[in-house]
Amino acid sequence: MGLATSMLANQASAGLITISGTAILDPVRSDGATPLPGGMLSFVAVDTLGDGFRTTLSDGATIAVNSFLDGSDDYIVATNPTDSVFGQSLVPGAAALDNGAHGIGIGDAIGIYFFEDVPLASEGGMVTLSEGSGYGFQTDPTWEVFSSGSKNFQRPAGDQFLQASSSAVSFKVAGGANVPEPSSLVLAGMVVLCACRRKR
Ligand SMILES: [Ca+2]
């Protein structure tokens, strides 16, 4: 009985989560063909209210770890530079977060953004967006906050997060128009290329 009580207590407690690995393999720029260069901004966010991710980013928005994304409920838990190793591009999914902090809870969705022309010198760096910066967004039903411990991204998913390919990513530009909600992206199952004109 003592053991069972202890196990229940462990399940109920908040915990530190560590995620790692390649979240998106072979990402491309918004032209749909050119490999994403290394050293560009990417970040990991958590949808704390379960209402979807903010996919319309303002020019002038500040991207910083441990802050809410552009006035939304989506909490930025990590910034990472994109990588390019021997000609193969990748978007890392590295992050550390606490499921009991900042409104983050078990089951909250995790999303990853990456930019094609906004440099990020080092992990954890901060960037202010300028208008017209192209970026991609990706989430997946397997990308959700769990109780504690670590997971990485791999294909096939197994007990880990599913690693996405660039064909599942949608693109847009800061200060531009909406991309479809993640749920409709899953249904569409296709790349959405958006050559958005600025709205006044
Ligand atoms: Ca949200």
What features would you describe in this structure?
This protein is mainly beta and about 200 residues long. The chain has one domain. It is built from two helices and 15 strands. It has helices at about 1-10, 180-190, and strands at about 15-25, 40-45, 60-65, 65-70, 75-80, 85, 90, 95-100, 110-120, 125-130, 135-145, 150-155, 160, 165, 170-175. The strands form three sheets. Strands 1, 6, 7, 8, 12, 13 and 14 form a seven-stranded mixed β-sheet that branches. Strands 4-5-2-9-11-15 form a six-stranded antiparallel β-sheet. Strand 6 and strand 7 form a beta hairpin. It is globular, with a radius of gyration of 17 Å. Mean pLDDT is about 80; it is low at about 1-15 and about 175-200. The structure holds calcium ion. Calcium ion binds near residues 47, 49 and 53.
Pick out the low-confidence regions.
1-13, 177-200
Return the domain count: 1
User: What is the residue-mean pLDDT, rounded to a whole number?
Assistant: 82
* Helical segment count: 2
Shape: globular
Whole-Å distance between the termini? 65 Å
- Count all strands and give the number: 15
Percentage of β-strand residues = 35-45%
Order of helices and strands: HEEEEEEEEEEEEEEEH
> Structural class of the secondary structure composition?
mainly beta
Question: What value does the Rg take, in angstroms?
Answer: 17 Å
Which cofactor or ligand species appear?
A: calcium ion
Task: State the helicity in percent bands.
Answer: under 10%
Biggest beta sheet summary: 7 strands, mixed
